[in-house]
Each structure stands twice: as structure tokens, then as C-alpha cells.
Design a protein that fits this description.
The protein is mainly α. It is 58% helix and 7% strand. It contains six helices and two strands.
Length: 113
């Protein structure tokens, strides 16, 4: 967790609050990071609070698992980004620029254009 935490902070910046499960290793890593780097990351321990994100990615996992892996990281990024876009369109989460209703197919073709 400590290496993951350092990498995440390098990529995204220092968070104010982190939601973790109740595992001891996550807690220890954040306490150690706070002590060494004089940071004030607040830990929010909730057993099922991160399940919202996990449930949202369940469709991605279901599509990617049968693919038996990828050779290039670029292919992984493009595939998962495409799956996420389709999933967001189905859920109605993409903002439309026009005033009229657009179908998921029209949104997809607009992205491709």
C-alpha cells in the first residue's frame, strides 16, 4: 500500500481525505506517510463505502476478463476508455451540447467524429 499510496499522490496530488476499508495495512501506510511527510491525510474507514465504485466497474470487469490479457498498455487504455464511455452513455451521464435528446448511438458517433 505504501508504494501504491506514493504513486497515487505523485500522479494526483495530496488528498485531504482517503476512504479505505478496515485493513491494518492501509491504515498503517497512511499513518506512516503522514508521519514521514508531515501530511494531514484524514482516513475515513468504512467497510462498504468503496463498493459504489466497485459496482460501477463490474461491467468493465465482465467485458475485459474473457479477453485473456493485452500485449500493449495502450490497448488496455483504449479498450477500457471505450467501455467506460459506452457505460456512461447507457447511464445517461454524458453531457449533451444541444438542447435535444440524443440517443447513445448518436452520442457515440459524435465522439468518433
Amino acid at each position: 500500500m505504501s508504494a501504491f499510496l506514493r504513486k497515487a499522490i505523485r500522479a494526483r496530488g495530496l488528498p485531504e481525505k482517503v476512504t479505505i476499508d478496515q485493513s491494518g495495512s492501509n491504515t498503517a501506510a497512511i499513518i506512516r506517510y503522514n508521519r514521514i511527510h508531515k501530511a494531514a491525510i484524514i482516513m475515513q474507514q468504512a467497510r462498504y463505502l468503496n463498493n459504489i465504485v466497485e459496482q460501477d466497474h463490474r461491467t468493465v470487469k465482465r467485458v475485459v476478463r474473457p479477453m485473456l490479457g493485452f500485449k500493449l498498455f495502450w490497448a488496455v487504455r483504449c479498450t477500457i476508455a471505450g467501455i467506460e464511455i459506452i457505460h456512461a452513455m447507457r447511464k445517461g451521464q454524458l453531457a449533451t451540447t444541444g438542447t435535444g435528446f440524443t440517443t447513445p448511438a448518436e452520442q457515440f458517433y459524435a465522439l468518433a467524429a
